[in-house]
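Internal ticket #5521
Category: modeling
Description: The requester needs a full-assembly model to guide mutagenesis choices. All entity lines are attached below as received. Residue total reported by intake: 713.
Assigned to: D.W.
Attached entities:
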Amino acid sequence: MFKIRGTRALAVVVAAVSVTALTACGAKTGDSGTSTTAGAVVDTSGPTVKVGLLNSLSGTMAISEVTVRDSLKLAIDEINASGGVLGKQIEPVSEDGASDWPTFAEKAQKLISQDKVAAVFGCWTSASRKAVKPVFEKNKALLFYPVQYEGLEESPYIFYTGATTNQQIVPALDYLKAQGKTSLYLVGSDYVFPRTANKIIKAYATANGMKVLGEDYAPLGSTEFSTIVNKVKASGASAVFNTLNGDSNVAFFKEYKSAGLTAAAMPVVSVSIAEEEVKSIGTQYLADQLTAWNYYQTTAGAANDKFVKAYKAKYGADKPTSDPMEAAYTSVYLWKAMVEKAGSFDVEKVKAAADAGGITYAAPEGLVTVDGPSQHVYKTARIGKIGPDGLIKEVWSSGQPIKPDPYLKDYSWATGLA
Amino acid sequence: MTLVLSQLFTGISIGAVLLLIALGLSLTFGQMNVINMAHGEFIMAGAYTVYVLQQVITSAGASLIVALPIAFAVAGAMGVLLEFLLIRRLYGRPLDTLLVTWGVALILQQAARDIFGAPNVQTRAPDLLTGSIHLPGGLVIASSRVFILVLALTAVAALTLVLKTTSLGRRIRAVVQNRDLAAVSGLATGRVDRLTFFIGSGLAGIAGVALTLIGPIGPAMGTNIIVNAFLVVVVGGIGQLKGTVIVAFALGILQSMVEYTTTVSVASVIVFIVIVAFLQWRPQGLFTLRTRSLA
């Protein structure tokens, strides 16, 4: 009676755990069910107009996406307090994507056909964006996507208010080159963004006489980095380019410091660590390491002072503001500007108004302009250094907003990447 | 040569982490046959104990030392509570135990999220444990890893001592080897079970303290750990401490050596293939307990 066969018990355990893993990953994407092809109908009959907020409020991505939802709500509240859009108050409908990509597609469809929203704001991971893209295209509805991503994409129904590669990764490489770094080691999580980003980095390195001494991918959620850090150390690279995401960053930086590697000798440039992540990794491990973004809480300017103050007043003094939050906040104001220029909530008219150019907003990161043809946004690239107080200080900036170039058409070394 | 040595140490240190997280489980799962899916959350409780203590004790070193016994007590108490309220009613029903403890694991994760917030929390490590030790021959090893190795070996030694030399240990072994006979001989098997569960869960708390030095501390940390812990115990052989020790180090070294020449994902696949092949050959694990029981 008291001898269960070990293997059988293990099989049960493994089966149970893989069920959770599977539901988290999601096997299918983009099945949006039946829908009309005539275009989304925006309900403007009442005194309010609805917009959708589509973020993961549960699951592994909730940590990051809840902050985006919060700053979207802040922007909506501010706009409502100052009279709304075209005389209508904005009514946000919040849906939980649950860190599960098919759920994102399902909820997007619900927001479009049931709530008849004028636009949807949200998504974080590239996987969730890829899952909802066909839904928005089929229904001819609008999505505003607020996170930096790997580029090589343009959808007529998506506005990208985060950075594309030539506004974040390429300037970061330019900065490293200017600092005299001649060799790189690439460390990333194993999914679409890091792999695409590293393809671009390798093309850049070849063209600019930099050496890529190694490239390693860890599964998302992996927390054992001793071997990777050993490899990084043995390579003797002059800098590390880090595209790890989530919990892995904590383990990576703890191991990095333990191995005796320092920001002075071998700096790490990260593209997924913002103020919120710094808080949970610990400045003990991150001090003086570099980040590449378009906005920091410390970015100078009256618009940012106002944003930071309003955010802290609404959500708590200890809550930092970060790049994706700022891009989300800005996206609501950009949509407002488009609607007002179009004089209508109708999706095609709003799009036409934006694509004609001239949509600008004095955002916390500085003046942003929507690039009509690509539906991306001009953004200033900023390299930051993590301080002992957990805030990130700008050490270099491109000085002026960079024109978005999602397919890197203006870079000769990038031919063949798309 | 230095590289091989340094990878060997990396493997040993991965093994030490595996050993520490599996040690408690080798008692509750290995000795008592309770599939406790909440074991990972007991580890999480240990890690959060460090976080809570650091709100009170400012010295990182002192808080870490104080955290060890307190985390043992906290996780142990949670284990006893779980055993007393649920598991004790489900002995001999492994599948029900699995589902129930999994439910408890989800509840504990959500509780951690509500109490400490969804984002990871940070703890401070004493300076002594964030640096590295330089050995002759250019070998550099992380001091946190040395600490974990020493902690793991100490825990194994202490546990062995308790099992082999104390009357409590004798009682635990008696109940494991033949529950009915132990009961007939006048042992209060229920009380022995609870004590075993206390020690096993307490060891999870200790593992949690150690993990704050190398990994993230958050509500989801337990789920990432639990599979590896079960793996080590099953391959090591149910009810065998020495199996757990040997397998933890063997898997750690295998993982680090293969990973160095390939990638993390390939290394994990190879480790799993080796495990599956091994279990085909020895389904009962590395060591088995030989008894005259007919069960």
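Resolution: model delivered.
Comment from assignee: Chain B touches chain A through 67 residues (CB under 8 Å).
Ticket closed.
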